[in-house]
Amino acid sequence: AFTNNFRIIKNKENQGLGASLRLGTKKVTTNWVARMDSDDISVPERFEKQLNMIKKIPELALIGGQINEFATNVGNIVGSRNVPTSEKEIKKFAKWRSPFNHPTIMMRKDVLQKVGGYVPFGNLEDYYLWVRVISSGYKVINIPDILVYMRVDEGMYNRRGKYSNILYFYKLRKYLKNEEMITFYEQVIGNIVMTINIIAPNSIRKILYQKILHRNMKMNDNDKE
What is the pLDDT of residues 189-200, one digit of tens each? Predict the structure, then answer.
């Protein structure tokens, strides 16, 4: 069904995000796929900035950017997630954490298909996709600009603490090791850190993400004064 300029695709039953992304990207008719969630807010110049970079770097396969995180309304910024911009730093970052902000990415559909597309993988279907793209040798970048305002809530921190994610994370770390993107030592350290993160109380996990992993903007603004 079409609504204005949108084609609405619905699953008959809930199959999870990975399966929905796989279905949705198959229906895309252009060679570039843009990603965001329904409650995210893209900045007005998002696609202009990304398309300018795509024109500038024809061999580019994947491009993302930075996000600000908000609670309740977009005026209430509670944090940000900054990811590296250069390909070299993205590869280093990918050893430990997802190197792209999923709601900001644009990706070539032909590359997506060649690496196997989105596959159900716990809450890590995006991270698993990024490392497959990187290990396949495709050119990737992030731009330094804020491209998306992403809504966060308590449920987000609960989802990141799901025990079912542990096995998927171990599988992801094993894939990184097999592709020689990490050493055995790095594999073990990463497994330990993620296990602690998952078993930690949700209140501790929230502090970890907001104060350390996802920099709290209000605190940093005060630090500048």
Answer: 999 888 887 776
What does the radius of gyration of the chain's CA atoms come to, in whole angstroms?
18
Q: Are 191 and 173 in contact (CB under 8 A)?
A: yes
Provide CB contacts within 8 A for 209, sequence distance 6+: 79, 157, 160
Distance CA 48, CA 18 (A): 27
3-state secondary structure of 29: coil
Tell me the per-residue pLDDT of 99-130, one tens digit each, with 9 for 90 and over.
999 999 999 999 999 999 998 888 899 999 99
Give how far the C-alpha of residue 123 lies from the chain's centroid of Cα atoms, to the nearest Å. 10
Per-residue burial over 103-128, b if 16 or more Cβ lie within 10 Å, else e, is bbbbbbbebbeebebbebbbbbbbbb
